[in-house]
Write a structure and sequence with these properties.
Distance between the termini: 16 Å
Shape: globular
Helix content: 40-55%
Bound molecules: 2-phosphoglycolic acid
Low-confidence stretches: none
Strand order of the largest sheet: 1-2-3-4-5-6-7-8
Structural class: alpha/beta
Number of helices: 12
Largest sheet: 8 strands, parallel, barrel
Number of strands: 8
Mean pLDDT: 97
Order of helices and strands: EHEHEHEHHEHHHEHHEHEH
């Protein structure tokens, strides 16, 4: 049975002190909420991982990095390896976010290397895919998403694939206030699941958590999460306030 997950992606926001405070608020709210219908994960900057790990109960709130290096270790000034991320106690890493692909030139080949190193270090991966407005309007978005998944993930075995969470994040909906309608998102999620089934079979496809990301907020989360193929969200802006984030967590 697949899991529902609501994951925050703080991006490049908060100082360490602010991040620890936010993490504590989320942790307390999760503890107070009792039985939840989803797993909760927070994705935080590298600099925050160790301090945030101390501030949360990792059994209740998962901890994710927002990236990791495509090299194992060595002379790569400024990079942070998957082993380093894992050594903080974090259990997830977000890979392939459109901001990384676009602003830091992360290619499918680089992402494939990151995927392998993350898995080798025991991290679960939230792997992002999603099309630009141009591709949506041209109607070629399915081919584009297929290539994003195939080129960086389809070398994995079915067993390895159990550690992958997919996040569908249409670029035109990220941080824009424009959310994909629940029908638009459901259509792509169903398509992604059928594509996974072609490669890995129905069981793996049905067990894979597929998150929606892009201006997801308390006011629209319930409608999105009610769709059969939408198993939660990857939340940017609305994850920076504990109350908003919890409004999404409790939308299930
Ligand atoms: P947003 O970002 O919720 O601010 O649109 C989502 C994401 O980029 O993960």
């Amino acid at each position: 049975m697949r899991k529902n997950i609501v994951a925050g992606n703080w991006k490049m926001n908060t100082t360490v002190a602010e991040g620890v405070q936010l993490a504590k608020e989320v942790n307390e709210a999760v503890a107070a909420a009792g039985e939840l219908k989803c797993d909760v994960v927070i994705g935080v900057p590298f600099t925050h991982l160790t301090a945030v790990k101390e501030a949360i109960d990792i059994e209740k709130v998962g901890l994710s990095a927002e990236n990791c290096a495509n090299k194992e270790k060595g002379a790569y000034t400024g990079e942070v390896s998957a082993a380093m991320v894992a050594s903080t106690g974090a259990n997830y890493v977000i890979l392939g976010h459109s901001e990384r692909r676009e602003y830091y030139n992360e290619t499918p080949e680089i992402l494939k290397e990151k995927v392998d190193l993350a898995l080798a270090n025991g991290l679960k991966i939230i792997f992002c895919c999603g099309e630009s407005l141009e591709l949506r309007e041209a109607g070629t978005y399915e081919e584009f998403i297929k290539a994003e998944l195939k080129d960086s993930l389809f070398h994995l075995s079915a067993e390895e694939f159990a550690n992958i969470v997919i996040a569908y994040e249409p670029i035109w909906a990220i941080g824009t206030g424009v959310t994909a309608t629940s029908d638009q998102a459901e259509e792509v999620h169903a398509f992604i699941r059928s594509f996974l089934a072609e490669k890995y079979g129905e069981t793996v496809a049905n067990d894979t958590t597929i998150l929606y990301g892009g201006s997801c907020k308390p006011s629209n989360a319930q409608e999105l999460f009610a769709k059969p193929n939408i198993d939660g969200g990857l939340i940017g802006g609305a994850s920076l306030k504990a109350a908003d984030f919890m409004g999404i967590v409790t939308a299930f």
